Amino acid sequence: MIPKKSNVFLFQASPDPGSARSSSFEQAIAPGNSTLHVCATLETLNVLIKRANENSGLLIVVVGYERATEGKDDHMWELATSAVAQIRNSNLHDAFVVLWSASESADAVKRSFWQRNGANMITESLDSVRSVLTTIETQLSGTGPLSTCPYCQIELPFYSLRIHMPLFHIQQGNKPGLCALCKFTHPKLAVHMSEAHDPSQSHKSKRQPVFSLVVARRPLDGKFLMVDEVCSWGWWLPGGGVDIGESLANAALRETLEEAGVDVELKGILRVEYTPSPHSSQSRLRVIYYAEPKDLTPPKCIPNYESAGACWVSLEQLKLLHLRGDEPIKWFQYVADGGAIWPLSILATERENCVFVANPF
Ligand SMILES: [Zn+2]
Ligand SMILES: [Zn+2]
Q: What is the pLDDT of residue 56?
C-alpha cells in the first residue's frame, strides 16, 4: 500500500511540554503544516498511532528530550524511551522516529543506545529535522513504476525507494529484493541501488584498490571523528576508495565530508601502506592522513548510503562502542601519545618539485 501523506508528531519528553522549546520546534518545522501535533503522554501517543494505522498515513514522530543533570533522577528519559518503544511495538513498521536532543546526539555511546532502541535518526539540529521531513514528503510524491521495500513492504516509486531504504532501515543489514529497473532480484538490494542506480552518476562505479583514511582530531577537546557505518557494521574512520583520476588527498577530504559531514584540513600523514598481491590489480595502497576540523559544524546525522551518522568520540568512549575493526583504537592512541605526523609533501606526483624537509633523525 502506498501511504498518501505523512503525519508529523512532536512527542515532548519534558517537565514542561508547552515549553519555548516545543514552540520553537513548531515555528521551525511546520509553519502552515496542519499535520503537526504536539503530545506529551504515552496515552495520547497511543491514540495517534492508532489513528495513523487506520488512515494508512506515514507516521513521523520527533521525540524531544534532554538529559537531566548527571546524578539526578531522570523520569523524562523513561518517558522518551517508552515512547520510542511504543512506536516500534506498534504495527507501524514504516514509522520514522527522530530523537531530537543535543545531549544524546553529541555522544556516540548514547546515539548507539537510541538506534538499538528504534530511533532512525538522532540530531540536535532543527534544520536537519526539517530537511529529513522534506525528503520524506518528497518521496511520497514521486512518480514512476512502483518497487516494494524488502524491509517494510511499503510501495514507492523507484528513486523514492532508493532514498527510503537507508533512511528507514540503515541498521537492519542487507536483504534481497527485486530491482524494478533491472527486473532482477539482487541479494543485497540496498548495495545494488546505491551503486548501480545513483542518479548523480557519482564515483561509485569506478573503483581501484587505493584508499584514503582520515584520523581527524578536534583540538578543542581532543576527541576523534568516527563514522557510524551502514548495515550496523560498527564505528569506523572516515575514508574510502580513491576515484580513478582523483588524488589521495582529495579522496580523504571528499569521503570525510560525505560520510561524516565534516570539512577537515589535512595536516599530515601518519602512514603509507602498500600491500602487494600476486594479482596485479589487487595490490592495495592505503594512506592514513591526520586532519583537524575547519570549524565546529556538528557531524552529519541524516542516514543515507554514506553512513548512519558521525560523532566526535573520546578514547574512553571508543572502548564502549561496537567498532568495525581495531584500527581507530591504535591510531587515536598513537596521536594522543604524540606519535610522529609526517609532512603532506612526502606524498607527491612524479612531476612535482622536491620539497625540503629537515631530517627528523
Ligand atoms: Zn521500508
Ligand atoms: Zn537495478
A: 65
The 10s digit of each residue's pLDDT in 50-101 is: 887 777 667 788 899 888 776 666 888 899 999 999 988 887 767 899 999 9
CA of 146 to the centre of ligand 1 (A): 13
**Domain co-membership, 150 together with 62:** no
Q: Are residues 191 and 125 in the same domain?
A: no
Q: Tell me which residue range forms the domain holding 308.
A: 207-346
Same domain for 132 and 238, yes or no, is no
pTM for the predicted model, two decimal places: 0.91
Residue 306 belongs to domain with CATH number: 3.90.79.10
Regarding whether 133 and 154 lie in a shared domain, the answer is no
pLDDT of 34 over the 60 cut: no
Q: How much distance in Å is there from the Cα of 182 to the middle of ligand 2?
A: 4
- Please tell me the total count of domains within the chain: 3
Q: pLDDT-based confidence at 227, cuts 50/70/90?
A: very high
Distance 70 CA to ligand 2 centre (A): 50
Which residues face 109 on adjacent strands?
none
Do residues 175 and 151 make contact, with C-beta atoms less than 8 angstroms apart?
yes
> Residues 93, 109: one domain?
yes
The ligand minimizing its distance to the Cα of 189 is 2
Q: Is residue 242 part of a domain?
A: yes
Distance 65 CA to ligand 2 centre (A): 40
> How many angstroms is it from 305 CA to the middle of ligand 1?
14
Q: Which residue has the cell 501517543?
A: 45
pLDDT for 286-341, tens place per residue?
Answer: 999 999 999 999 999 999 999 999 999 999 999 999 999 999 999 999 999 999 99
d(CA 229, CA 27): 33
Tell me how far the alpha carbon of residue 186 lies from the centroid of ligand 2, in angstroms. 8
Cell numbers 543515507 correspond to 304
Q: Which residues lie at CB < 5 A from ion ligand 2? A: 179, 181-182
User: Which ligand does the CA of 194 lie closest to?
Assistant: 2
- Percentage of the chain beyond pLDDT 70 is 92
Boundary-marking domain end, from 159, 174, 196: 196
Closest by alpha carbon to 287, among 236, 346, 232? 346
Task: Enumerate the H helices of the chain as residue ranges.
Answer: 20-29, 42-54, 75-89, 102-105, 108-116, 126-140, 158-169, 189-196, 248-260, 315-318, 327-336
Q: How far does the centroid of ligand 2 lie from the alpha carbon of residue 195, in Å?
A: 9
Q: Is residue 361 part of a domain?
A: no
* Cα 140 to ligand 2 centroid, rounded to whole Å: 21
